[in-house]
Design a protein that fits this description.
The complex is a heterodimer of chains A (421) and B (282). In chain A, strand 4, helix 11 and strand 5 form a beta-alpha-beta unit. Helices cover 54% and strands 8% of the residues of chain A. With 421 residues, chain A is of the alpha/beta class. Chain B has 9 helices and 10 strands. In chain B, the strands form 2 sheets. A 5-stranded antiparallel sheet of chain B has the order 1-2-3-4-5, covered by helices on one side. In chain B, strands 6, 7, 8, 9 and 10 form a 5-stranded antiparallel sheet that branches. In chain B, strand 3 and strand 4 form a beta hairpin. In chain B, helix 1 packs antiparallel against helix 2, helix 3 packs parallel to helix 4 and helix 5 packs across helix 6. Chain B starts with a helix and ends with a strand. Classes of the chains: A alpha/beta (421), B alpha+beta (282).
Chain lengths: 421, 282
């Protein structure tokens, strides 16, 4: 691995414990079996036949949901899927407001790319996908007059307005009409555009709550027709609570989710796969408010090698005990750290094992012991680099983990306060 | 002169109160971490009590002491938080209650606990926050474990032993409702309506003759819910050629206690809301 990338990963892991968007394979532990089933059964399996699927990913806060979703994304890229990773949040993107969800999907849609390098801003968004579509077409077709024939042959998705907008953006880009491209993309990203622009591109609809689901379907159908195998949508309820607050919002969100699950059974979502990750399924499917039993029953079956059609992927049950899991993770972190700083860190195995045992024993019901371990381990490796031969005692390990918990708690609190403000 | 006496008496009274509080406080300091929240409450009381003191040396000294104590209490609360999970797990060891989740919300078998570290209190629920069993519980992990154990043991001890007999009772109650409401057997009735009928059937002859509180045999919905779970688990479904059916509740009904009842699906606290019960042919 490239030294700069390794350094960026170590920096991200050491500061927040959340996975970076790139290079995660270097420290993936225990997910291979699940990922292989996703790949064999879905990405390289039924999705090829224009089918679709929905999976619910559950795991504690800091238990590896985002990591899992990024790993799915990387495998999806290998099989030529576009991917959108959407972090759901009560303010910016709650699941009860599908129009906002659509916007975030359009903003984060990404064509297949190399995930072993640092990503750039231009890699993301429906505009980037259109650019790639245009580049691909240009590389295959040297006669621009065939453009109309090509566009005529494209199947029209559920929303004609959506089709006209992507077609308009594509044509404008090929004609080097930057203003036209920007206006069409603006609408595709859910922003307002002028009446003249709407008239120019023959756009008669707005992207609002009544059309959002159709737009999402149209986006999936369009991606499928322009040379990609399909779309993988990764919804991540990344925060401790879910993005839904009131009972009315909850009902709407659950209705949206049910509609999504049910739509996966028909052919209107060709090659689409949805992952919805929640920190506690209880918040979504049970708890003090009303409960959607019909949805709960649809999402109940467990996904595994033995049952690949199951819906629920439980990251708390990876088939590997917590301490060996963390020990393995520790080894990967040492490799990464050595690459990042071009140095050998010797004799840290016992200390990392102790750190793993202490994290599991003492912090299993607190902030996720996995995230806690990662942040503390990186800090320890920095210390060991500065003081070669350094060994942790049980007391040191506990102290390090406690300080790390407080730091993570504080930064989470600050994040919540920022959002509330 | 009289005014001065009054001021001195008042000061003496206030001083006595503060001294008493401080004496109580010193007992709490013997276990500083365990009593962190109690200490915090007492510090607030001392703070209130010295408000009436005239500015001066005594007031300043107490204030200084309070500031230092508050710092120590914060540290003790942090320590308490670290120890809480470990001690709760230790307290539940051997109980058969599996603990899942992350603080502040934990699922303990068929129960759940919401912990509030800011106030030092916890709430115990039946199922995943389905019914509030006890709120304002002092945040003492071993005591909390004891409460959970006792709820669990009591539930299991009083649960039905003979599912066939229970399904018969359900059927009797169901038929009585059908008869009273003039509805055809096979129609669905609310489970909660059936619960009232079940309670009535459980009463002794003594209660019927003289329905006083002392003779009343209670049957809370949690026990009913647990008994239905035992019944589901047993596989006993029929009585007199009729099969028992439980109908899953819709979204709105799950929010109304009169229209739905949560019944566990397993010992790990997963469950389903049901609205209706019926007995149908076959």
């Amino acid at each position: 691995m490239d030294r700069e990338l390794a350094r960026a990963i170590i920096n991200k892991l050491g500061s927040t414990g959340t996975p970076p968007e790139f290079g995660i394979e270097a420290f993936t532990v225990g997910l291979d079996r699940l990922l292989q089933v996703v790949e064999d059964e879905y990405l390289n399996g039924i999705l090829k036949y224009n089918l679709s699927s929905f999976k619910l990913v559950t795991g504690n806060y800091g238990g590896g949901k985002t990591h899992f979703l990024y790993a799915v994304r990387n495998r999806a890229f290998k099989h030529n899927y576009c991917v959108a990773y959407v972090s759901l949040s009560p303010t910016e993107c709650p699941f009860d407001k599908l129009e906002l969800v659509y916007k975030m999907v359009a903003l984060n849609l990404t064509a297949p790319q190399d995930t072993s390098r640092l990503a750039t801003l231009t890699d993301k968004g429906i505009d980037a996908v259109i650019r790639q579509w245009a580049a691909n077409w240009r590389s295959k077709e040297d006669n621009p007059e065939r453009l109309q024939d090509y566009l005529l042959q494209l199947p029209v998705p559920d929303s004609t307005s959506f089709f006209n907008a992507v077609k308009g953006a594509f044509s404008a880009l090929l004609a080097e009409d930057i203003d036209g491209f920007t206006e069409a993309v603006q609408w595709l990203k859910g922003e307002e555009i002028s009446r003249e622009a709407r008239a120019r591109f023959k756009i008669s609809e707005r992207i609002d709550k009544s059309t959002a689901f159709r737009m999402l379907r149209s986006l999936i159908q369009w991606v499928h027709t322009i040379g990609f195998r399909g779309v993988v949508l990764l919804f991540d309820e990344a925060e401790r609570g879910v993005s839904i607050s009131s009972s009315r919002d909850r009902r709407r969100a659950l209705d949206n989710l049910r509609q999504l699950v049910d739509e996966c059974g028909n052919s209107r979502l060709p090659g689409a796969m949805f992952f919805y990750a929640v920190p506690d399924e209880n918040l979504l499917l049970e708890g003090s408010g009303p409960v959607y039993e019909a949805l709960k029953q649809r999402l109940r079956s467990g996904f595994s090698e033995a049952n690949p059609v199951g819906v629920r992927i439980n990251l708390e049950e990876l088939g590997i005990e917590p301490v060996p899991f963390l020990e393995e993770l520790g080894k990967r972190l040492v490799d990464l750290f050595e690459t990042a700083y071009g140095t050998k860190i010797n004799g840290v195995e016992r200390s990392l094992k102790l750190l793993a045992e202490t994290a599991v024993k003492g912090f299993v019901l607190d902030v996720s012991y996995r995230r806690l371990f990662v942040v503390a381990a990186v800090e320890f490796l920095h210390q060991a680099r500065a003081n070669p031969g350094m060994v942790l005692t049980e007391r040191d390990a506990e102290k390090l983990l406690r300080v790390t918990t407080q730091r993570l708690d504080r930064s989470e609190q600050e994040k919540v306060e920022r959002e509330e403000f | 002169m009289e005014g001065l006496i009054g001021v001195l008496k008042d000061t003496a009274l206030r001083s006595q109160k503060v001294a008493k509080l401080l004496a109580g406080y010193s007992r709490l300091v013997s276990e500083p971490i365990r009593n962190a929240y109690e200490r915090e409450r007492m510090v607030v009381e001392v703070e209130k009590a010295i408000e009436g003191f005239a500015p001066g040396e005594v007031r300043d000294k107490v204030r200084q002491w309070l500031d230092e104590e508050k710092r120590q209490i914060e540290a003790a609360k942090e320590e308490f938080k670290f120890e809480f999970g470990r001690q709760l797990l230790a307290g539940l060891e051997g109980s058969g209650l599996t603990v899942k989740g992350q603080l502040p919300f934990l699922r303990c078998g068929l129960f759940s606990v919401r912990v509030d570290f800011a106030t030092g209190r916890a709430t115990v629920f039946w199922g995943p926050e389905i019914e509030r069993l006890k709120s304002g519980v002092k945040l003492e992990p071993l005591a909390l474990a004891k409460i959970l154990r006792s709820y669990d043991e009591s539930l299991k001890k009083r649960a039905i032993k003979d599912p066939a007999e229970f399904v018969e009772r359900l059927f009797t109650a169901y038929r009585r409702i059908c008869l009273a409401r003039n509805i055809v057997e096979g129609e669905r009735v609310f489970l909660v309506d059936l619960l009232s009928e079940m309670v009535f059937l459980m009463q002794s002859e003594g209660f019927r003759v003289n329905p006083v509180r002392e003779r009343f045999v209670e049957y809370p919905r949690i026990r009913f819910s647990y008994d239905l779970y035992i019944l589901k688990r047993s596989g006993v479904r029929t009585v007199g050629g009729k099969g028992l059916r439980l109908s899953v509740a819709n979204f709105d009904a799950t929010g109304e206690k009169a229209k739905s009842l949560w019944v566990p699906d397993n010992e790990e606290g997963e469950g389903t809301y049901y609205s209706y019960i019926s007995f149908v042919n076959g």
